[in-house]
Amino acid sequence: MAKQSLNEIEAQFRVDNDFSDVDGAYFREILHGVPQFKSEIDTVLKPCLDIEIEELDPLTGGVAPVHLGTAQAR
């Protein structure tokens, strides 16, 4: 998945999943916003963690679930 563009990931996700009850604009904002603001998110997260950011379990491209939650709170 990490070797695909975000647009390809989004298109595949929409094909593979029922999007009838999903806020598509919000999904797109989070999907594209997390990588875009990863450095900013890491800066906010770092003081809250007892491990290094690099030790977080990556989903794709070093983006961990905690990045997604932080992006939502942004």
Descriptive key words:
74 residues; elongated
Tally of individual domains: 1
List unreliable stretches of 5+ residues: none
End-to-end separation in angstroms reads 25 Å
Element string (H = helix, E = strand) = HHHH
Helix/strand-derived category reads mainly alpha
Q: So what's the overall shape?
A: elongated
Strand residue content: under 5%
Q: What level of helicity do the residues show?
A: 55-70%
Query: Main beta sheet: strand number and arrangement?
Result: none
Oligomer category: single chain
Radius of gyration: 13 Å
Q: What is the tally of beta strands?
A: 0
Structure annotation, total helices: 4
Q: What is the average per-residue confidence, as pLDDT, rounded to a whole number?
A: 78
Describe the protein's architecture and organization.
- The protein is mostly helical.
- The chain has one domain (6-73).
- Helix content is 55%, strand content 0%.
- The protein contains four helices and no strands.
- Helix 2 (24-36) packs across helix 4 and helix 3 (38-45) packs across helix 4.
- The chain is elongated and about 40 Å long.
- The protein starts with 5 loop residues before the first helix and ends with a helix.
- The mean pLDDT is 78.
